[in-house]
Amino acid sequence: MPNLSNLVIKSHLSKLLLLIVQSSCSLFADQTPPPLNILFIAVDDLNDWISPLGGHPQTLTPNFQRLASQSVLFTNAHCPAPACGPSRAAILSGIAPHLSGLYENQQPLREVQPEVTLMPRHFSNHGYHAAGSGKILHYVIDPQSWDDYFPAKEKDNPFPFTLYPEKRPVSLPRGGPWQYLETDWGPLDATDEEFGGDYSVSQWVSQQLANPPANKPFFLACGLYRPHEPWFVPAKYFEPFPLNQVQLPPGYRPDDLDDLPPAGRALARNRYFPHIQWHGQWRAGVQGYLASIHFADAMLGNVLDALEKSPRRDNTIVVLWSDHGWHLGEKEHWQKFTGWRACSRVPLMIKVPKNNPGICDQPVSTLDLFKTLISLTGIPERDNLSGHDLTPLLKNPTAEWPHLALTQLRGPKDFALSGKQFRYIHYTNGDEELYDIAADPHEWTNLAPDPAHKETLSSFRSRAPKNAISHKRPQQSTKLKKTPQVALTTEGEPPPSLPGSGKVPFQIKNQSNRHLQLIWIDQQGNHKPVEKIAKASTRTIPTHVGHTWLIKTKSGTILGHLIIPKNGARLYIE
After folding, report:
1. Which of 1, 8, 392, 530 is the most buried (most CB within 10 A)?
2. Which fold has domain 37-403?
3. Digit-coded pLDDT (tens) for 336-377
4. Where do runs of H (alpha helix) occur along 104-222?
5. Among this protein's residues, is 360 annotated catalytic?
6. Considering 56, 78, 79, 84, which one is annotated as catalytic?
7. Which CATH topology does 478-573 take?
C-alpha cells in the first residue's frame, strides 16, 4: 500500500512545479524583444560597379557581396536627386526635392529647411542614441541632429584627416577654372592607417559597435567618402587593376547621343570627358574609380567584421545606400547630375534580423528609407514624410508594387521616373526620353519618338510629380545684419583654412560685369572651387570663422582672398 504522506508531498511538489513553470511562461510572454538597432551606411558617388549589381566585370567587392547575400538587395533602386546635397537632404529629411525646393548642391540644407527634424534626431527623440561619422549630409554634420559624432560635431566638418599628395594635380592637368580640383587620381605609398579618412571612420564606427550605449538602442551612421573624388587611395588597392588590362565602361557607346533630344545632348556633353580623353587618361580614371571602390569595400569589411563581434549583432538592421551614381564616359559624360540610369541607379541593401535575404527588382527610392526604418522599429512616424514603406518588399521581394521611383533633376519640371520595365526622362523644355531597361539596360535606344510607345509615354506623363515647387532660395540669415563689410587681400599667398569653429554667413555681392569663381582653401592648402557667382548677382553661403576664400574671374584672374572674421563677412565686388 503506497505511503500516504509521500503521495501528499509529491502532489504539493507537482503543484509547486506547475506554478513555477506557469509563472516563467507568463514572465517570458510579457517580455518584448529588445528594440532593433540601426547601422546606416552611406557610400559616396557609388554607381552599380559592385559585384552584386554587376556594373563592371573587374570590380573587386567581396564585402558588398557579403552584405548583399544577407540582405534584400534592391536591383532597381534610384536616388531622389543626382547630386550629393539634395539627395542626402531628401533621404535624411524624408522630404522629396520637388516638395522641399532643394534641388542643387548650392542650396544649404539649414537655410532652405531650417526647422526640419532629420532622421537621426527623430530616432534620438524616441529613445535611440544617434551617433555618426564621416559624410552623411553634404559637407556638414548638422550638430543638432546627433548625440555624438566623429570628428567632433561642434566643428561641423565631417571629414577626419585624409592623406593627399603634396603636389597636385597628379594625373589630370587642370583644363580651366571650370574643372573641379578633385578630378584627379593615383596610388599612394601609405597604409590604411596613414591614409586616414574612411579608415578612421570605419575604426570609430567599429568601436561604437563593440561598445554600444547601455540601455538604449542605437542609430549609428557610417559615411564612406570613397569612391568620391579624388581617387587617391593606398597603392595596394590599385594593384589588382593593371592599367593595360582595365576595361572601359560597358555602358559606353560612341553613337549614343544620336537619338537624344537637344536637352539630353546638352546635359550629356560636359567638358570633362573630352578633356580626359585628350590627355589619354580615360583608362587611368576608370582604374582610379575601381581602386577607390575596392578601398571602400575594405572599409565596409572593417565595419561588418565589427558588427559580427558586437553584442548587438542579432538585433541590428543594416542599411547600405549610395547618394547617386556616376558616369565614366557613358553618354559622353563624366561626373553626375544626370537623369540616366548610370547616375540615378544606386546600390541599396537592407538586412533585417530574422528576415530572409532576397533580390527585389521593383522600382524603389532611397527616399523610402525614413518611412521604412520607422516601420521596422515601431517608433512614431514624423509628419510630412515622402516616400513609401518598403517592408512589404522586405517580407516578399516579389510582392506587387504600384509605385515608380522619382529622381528629381535641377528643377520642378526636370525629372526621371523609373518603373520595372521602362524609364522616362522629362526636361524643363518638354523634351523627353523613354527606355526599355529590360531589353536595353544601358539606355542606348530612345523610344520616345516611336509611335508604338505612345501609351507608355502617356502613362509616365500622367505620373509626373505633383505640387512641385520652384527652387527655394536660402533664407537670409539675421546674422547678415551684424556681419562686417570686408575687402579682399591681394598680397601674399592665401593661407590654408583654420579648423572650423563657429558657422557664419558669407555674402558676396557681385556688382561687376564679370562672372566670378569662389574657391575655398582647405586645411591642407588645396584649392577647391565651390560656386560660380554670375555678374550682377548676390549669393550667401555658410562658412566658418578662420576659413580662407579666394575669388577669381571666369578667365582665371585672381582678385584676391580673405579670411572669414568672427561675425562672417559681406564682400562687394565692383
Report:
1. 530
2. Alkaline Phosphatase, subunit A (3.40.720)
3. 999 999 999 999 999 999 999 999 999 999 999 999 999 999
4. 109-112, 119-125, 192-195, 198-210
5. no
6. 84
7. Immunoglobulin-like (2.60.40)
